[in-house]
């Protein structure tokens, strides 16, 4: 099967100018087309988002904000950034949106710069429990420049215990409290976190990078009205380019804007802003809400089927797009499992699980999700098939017979390719 870029003229120019890179682009298009993307932080963008991201906005430098730039020739860029911010405000129901952060980590760093001082106490979910590096984990700058304290999940439920969070917050009195993370399969109680933040005089930051599309589509409660600041990436479930946004009320707008520029960044990536604007426009359509609901429904089917096949799921299942599997009882590590699955055309990522006894680079878990498969149009039947393939490959790996594993991997890879042929990748034809 041949996959060609939706932007034919650009592809033709690339092929003439740099055949090596053109070949790599074609190889990646083919790889994405013939494999199943189960990593919950990945998705597919539309042809329109691809076109906007690869547009002539790449050529323009725009340090500053609309109407307040340090370069001339901003007449069109100002309209573009204004449009993207307007769409973000309307979609999420906020008073202010900054669409300039390069990615989620700089967006979170901007929050620290805006509202905290070096040495202040900050509180977030511990990375091994499902949090993010920038929520104060020690190896991050946020855990070096600030005094971090971390909350986790209960060992018996795999869920956040807000009573424990409240006790920690009362004792430590953080300046910032982060909620959200990278491996959180359950609904985030934004109202509960907000009550704790108010009680201890902290600023609540909701990092919804993973669930922004679910929030926009009405498939997950919104943090707006609870959190003082909301940060998010623009890809993942939102199906935009790899950028980020910070959403706030009017009272925090100036502090956020000054932290992004000139505090942390120079000129924004205008081609990314163009792609963000398109993605936000797509997310405002009724069909996106249906997409978000199908993401959640598909993840639930996937989780139920895996549990029925004996897989241990952190927290027992999922409320959103993400399923976190603990492979300890299957007798294999997450890293070798992810590699075997990748060879079989099932793209996952190895991931730590709460209270993981293994090292972070060789953890016990697998993190999978439904956003990308749902974008391809797959439903419950396909989720059940994916669970069956996961079970076959992991079972063959656990058995320890290299020849038998190789045979299973090759057969599954062929079956995966057949399924993929029925569900083309969006944005690529």
Automatic annotation (TrEMBL):
Its EC number is 2.1.2.1. (6S)-5,6,7,8-tetrahydrofolate binds at residues 127, 131-133, 251. Residues 15-389 form the Serine hydroxymethyltransferase-like domain. GO terms for biological process: glycine biosynthetic process from serine; methylation; tetrahydrofolate interconversion. The modification N6-(pyridoxal phosphate)lysine is found at residue 236. It is an enzyme of class 2 (transferase). Its cofactor is pyridoxal 5'-phosphate. InterPro entries: PyrdxlP-dep_Trfase, PyrdxlP-dep_Trfase_major, PyrdxlP-dep_Trfase_small, Ser_HO-MeTrfase, Ser_HO-MeTrfase-like, Ser_HO-MeTrfase_PLP_BS, SHMT-like_dom. GO terms for molecular function: glycine hydroxymethyltransferase activity; methyltransferase activity; protein homodimerization activity; pyridoxal phosphate binding. It comes from the Bacteria. Homodimer. This is Serine hydroxymethyltransferase. It comes from Allonocardiopsis opalescens.
